[in-house]
Specification:
alpha+beta; Uridine Diphospho-n-acetylenolpyruvylglucosamine Reductase, domain 2; Uridine Diphospho-n-acetylenolpyruvylglucosamine Reductase, domain 3; Uridine Diphospho-n-acetylenolpyruvylglucosamine Reductase, domain 1; four-stranded mixed β-sheet; globular
């Protein structure tokens, strides 16, 4: 695949930011990656996955490698479980539905999360009480210096809340080539208590749900709350849910009895950033072509024609307003470039 100079990326990021790459090339294999790196087209390298979890505020003065490695294969199977090796360029939701179709359990709560599989371990994506690390086995990462492969197991990835070694010590050093997930074939462990999943199942009169019922419920909830990036530019949930000390959570709960509070590690509590942003008055807010989605305050939207700098300015304004009102810092879940 021939690298292309000054390549437009507006259609390759779900925020629709009108930026350009100095050089661009799709990478469909480790061999292609090595060949492109050998060309030494640019001293900087930038890995672009599905473009669904990022805010681009300027042109990328770099060689942009667009992840395009496909394929799903079974690497291990027993009567109880199956391990899948998945190419980093596969669409995440397609993987989830492939598993649901085959009655392989573990990822169903993560239905309809946008993006590619390769980004899942970097961000340690999660939703409705489940994180991808719960099924993660290992991944193959290609060094951006020479394309050499390094295997990262569960411990080696150092997963945290929307975090991993790839966002810290190994940041900008690798392109994920493939990921392995362990899934159950029977006796699925169902996660029903987080969010509105139980309510949707009850409304649909489903008393003994299976993984397909959960995936359908999750999709219904997400579609009712989150905008389709094909219709309006967005990067999904823009902010992380903050984790605060238990003492501060007690004080806030006394001031705001309707504040949802969830358990985190010992001595700490997690509270919804969307609730904080809405109470700060930003749900449905709009300035120029930037805004906050009217149905979900966690989501920043591009109404058309907004720049990355304008979107980032709005995000910082929201952070400041939340801190002023609640004394709580919220940080972006979305990487900003």
């Amino acid at each position: 695949m021939k690298p292309q100079p000054h390549f437009p990326l507006a259609s390759l990021n779900t925020m629709g930011m009108p930026v350009y790459a100095a050089w661009y090339v799709p990478v469909d294999s480790q061999k292609t990656l090595k060949e492109v790196l050998d060309l030494r087209l640019h001293p900087k390298v930038f890995v672009l996955s599905g473009g669904s979890n990022m805010l681009l505020t300027q042109d990328l003065d770099a060689l942009v490698l667009h992840v395009a490695i496909k394929g799903i294969e079974i690497t291990h199977e027993s009567s109880d479980e199956v391990i899948l090796k998945v190419g980093a360029g596969e669409t995440w939701h397609d993987l989830v539905m492939y598993c649901v179709h085959n009655n392989w359990g573990g990822l169903e709560n993560l239905a309809l999360i946008p993006g590619y599989v390769g980004a899942a371990p970097i961000q340690n994506i999660g939703a409705y009480g489940v994180e991808q690390k719960d099924c993660f086995v290992r991944c193959g990462a290609f060094a951006l210096t020479d394309g050499h492969e390094r295997i990262f197991d569960l411990e080696g990835c150092q997963f945290g809340y929307r975090d991993s070694i790839f966002k810290r010590d190994a940041r900008d050093q690798y392109m994920i080539g493939w990921v392995e997930y362990r899934l159950t074939k029977k006796n699925h462990r169902l996660h029903l208590s987080y969010g509105a999943i139980g309510e949707v199942l009850e409304q649909n009169n489903i008393q003994s749900p299976g993984i397909a019922d959960i995936a359908e419920a999750v999709q219904s909830i997400r579609q009712s709350k989150l905008p389709d990036p094909k219709v309006i530019g967005n990067a999904g949930s823009f902010f992380k849910n903050p984790v605060i000390e238990e003492a501060q959570a007690v004080v806030l709960s006394e001031q705001y009895p309707d504040l949802p509070v969830y358990d985190a590690q010992a001595g700490w509590k997690k509270i919804p950033a969307g609730w904080l942003i809405e109470k700060a008055g930003y749900k449905g807010y709009r300035t120029k072509n930037c805004g906050v989605y009217e149905k979900q305050a966690l989501v920043l939207v591009n109404h058309g024609g907004a720049t990355g700098a304008e979107m980032w300015a709005l995000a910082q304004e929201i952070q400041s307003a939340v801190f002023t009102k609640f004394g709580v810092e919220i940080s972006p879940e979305v990487p900003v470039f």
